[in-house]
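Form 7-S
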Amino acid sequence: MKSSLPSDTCPLCLTVGEYIEIENAQDASEWDVAESFPQEADQFTIPNSCLEHYYRYKNQRLLRCSNCGTYYWYREWAPGGSEDVLKTYIHESMRRLSFLEAHVELHDAQYQAFTRAKEYGGSFEDEYEITRQGVQQEMDLLKARCPEIVSDVIHSVENKHARSEQLEETLKLYAPHRDHTSEIETQREKDEQVAVYHVGILAEYLQYWEPSTIPMQMIRSLVTLLADDNQKIREIIRDALIRVIRDATAHGKLASEILKVAQELAVQHAETQGLLQVCREFISGN
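Output:
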């Protein structure tokens, strides 16, 4: 279930697009024509002053559109190899992020700062505290984006093995006579870990979503995840849905709707049965 995004109507984001890349010689001559981002990209800045401190020496950083709040990921790199061995070319890119991806990048920034503080102490502890404050500022803003984030997670879990499937196709194409079972299984394990991580994010953001405003189509999609083959995912979704029912003003009505959807889908996992039991208890108590 896709909702309208701020970038769909933002003149700055529409001009920059979902991805843009430029290339310039590191030591450009007077004959080199310089490439630059559109002028609108100047309005994409590091989200807040605390995060400016964190990203000050990094060639990859989070940016936010000053007009609509959409996040972008900026990257600068020098590819290895060149047609002209006497020149080094610097590439720069901006890629639009979903709000889920922005959450992940913010979480990673805080984790990296925490790891350095734990290992080195001293000034790194001060840097961690500044980074933590900057991340929290953005996380507070992201609470208003819970519908988009929940939707992104559902899509991610429904397609959780996309990477391993793509890897399998590539390996079969370029090395058809080798046994790739080990590589594919390793990637599938990583896919599962990412899916569990994403579902944990979903559970967090569902707490910020007023139950009475959650569309029934979204509830149906959440219940569908109870058929996933990963027990941890099923447990997180079950607990998240139970919290949604408990937080709802009309407990019985929402419980009845979830019960109906679960019975229609005929999901038999123990986690689903546990949810159904809770639904029946709420219904009988009204």
